[in-house]
Specification:
The chain is mainly α. The chain has two domains: 80 residues, no CATH class; 43 residues. The chain is built from two helices and no strands. The longest helix is centred in the first third of the chain and has 73 residues. The relative contact order is 0.03.
Length: 123
């Protein structure tokens, strides 16, 4: 009985809320239609300003987080991802050393061929 009474009261309140919403929409629609040439550009500007603010805030937050990560890495606190960075640095150094050795070998080969060709031309 109590649940039925509470349910009926809530049903009446929801009906009144729906009726009030429909009446407010009927009254506000002509005002919105007449002022839409002002409201639509204003809404676009507000959206763009708000999204720009959030974007710049996000970039600032990202810069702060990157700076904090670099600080932790430099001070030796081993932040997440530092092992990947160390691995990549090692691979780059190894590749650079290999390229240096190959260039040195290639230079020596060219130098030998130049000497051989100079010997065959003088003979």
């Amino acid at each position: 009985m109590t649940a039925g009474t509470i349910g009926a009261a809530l049903l009446v309140l929801s009906g009144l809320t729906l009726t009030g919403t429909v009446i407010a929409l009927v009254v506000a629609t002509p005002v919105l239609v007449l002022s839409s040439p002002i409201l639509v550009p204003a809404a676009i500007v507000v959206f763009l300003v708000t999204s720009g603010f959030f974007f710049s805030s996000g970039c600032g937050l990202a810069a702060i987080m990157v700076s904090l990560w670099i600080y932790n890495y430099v001070t030796g606190k081993h932040p997440p991802g530092a092992d990947k960075l160390d691995y990549a640095r090692g691979r780059i150094a190894e590749t650079a050393k290999d390229m240096k050795d190959r260039a040195k070998e290639c230079g020596q080969n060219v130098q030998q061929k130049v000497q051989e060709s100079s010997h065959t031309q003088t003979s």
